[in-house]
Amino acid sequence: MLFWCFAVGSVVTAYLVFRTDSMVRAAFWLLASFVGVGAILVMLAAEFLGMVLILMMAGEMLIMAVVMVMYMMNPAGLNPMFMVHQHRFAVGAGVVSFVGLSVVALTVDFPDQPVDPAIDATAELGFELLGDSMLVFQTAGVALLATMIGAIALASRNGRFGTADEGSQEPSLEIEELESP
Amino acid sequence: MTLQALLVVAAALFAIGLYGAISQQSFVMLMMGLELMINGALLALIALWALSSGGNPQGQMLAIVFMAVMAIEMALGFALITNVYRVRRADITEKLRRLKG
User: Fold this and answer.
1) Following DSSP, what letter does each residue of chain A receive, concatenated?
2) Is residue B101 part of a domain?
3) Distance from CA of B57 to the nearest CA of A (A)
4) Each residue of A22-42: pLDDT tens digit?
């Protein structure tokens, strides 16, 4: 019963993300959807991942709300907002993907091997992270470092060809003539 | 709570995210669609880990990689939005006719 509350709640709030009039409200509906999924992960014995998802998304959605107030039109939802393009195609793609994935979920015979309740999944994950999968874990860390550097480079005001708000015009390729001796 | 039910919920989240990623004009709303798609994939992955793989720890490891992908997408997305807004004063995809700065 609790599972269905979280499942239906996360799907409905995900739907409301694209139906609300305010982008800030949309960010908080998305956070509600993530909290529902995080709670389902906790119920599935992945307590660590569920809590990390909720905490990570809480921070991320607050940043998203701040970005929207800074840059976007209609941040506080004072006017009706319906900014979409290719709407019919998008609805069709969503319906087709839902039907296709549901057919796969309901028809494929997955092996029935639930987690043994005796094992501590968080401890197992810790041993996996710092043992056999150490290289994968480190690779994810390096990818995040590269992202931080890339994000700073992208968001920096000074680009390669001047400041960003002047349009960063590339210099022309005219070759200056050398003075003859 | 059966595996089928979990996978159908994950499919619904993925489908709503796909709708948002294709249809939204605003950059941030588009990113929300992408986040929802990853959210659905994460739920499906953990459901398969918990009910079909016998709790193999590598399943959770893969979920952590998914979360790193989410963080990378958001960080680069915000940086791109900042840059595009500075250069073009644009906050919707329709205003970008070309990507060159």
Assistant:
1) -HHHHHHHHHHHHHHHHTT-S-HHHHHHHHHHHHHHHHHHHHHTT-HHHHHHHHHHHHHHHHHHHHHHHHH-SSTT--S----BSSHHHHHHHHHHHHHHHHHHHHHS-----PPPTTS-HHHHHHHHHTTTTHHHHHHHHHHHHHHHHHHHHHH-SEETTEEGGGT-PPPP-PPPPPPP-
2) no
3) 5
4) 778 888 999 999 999 999 999
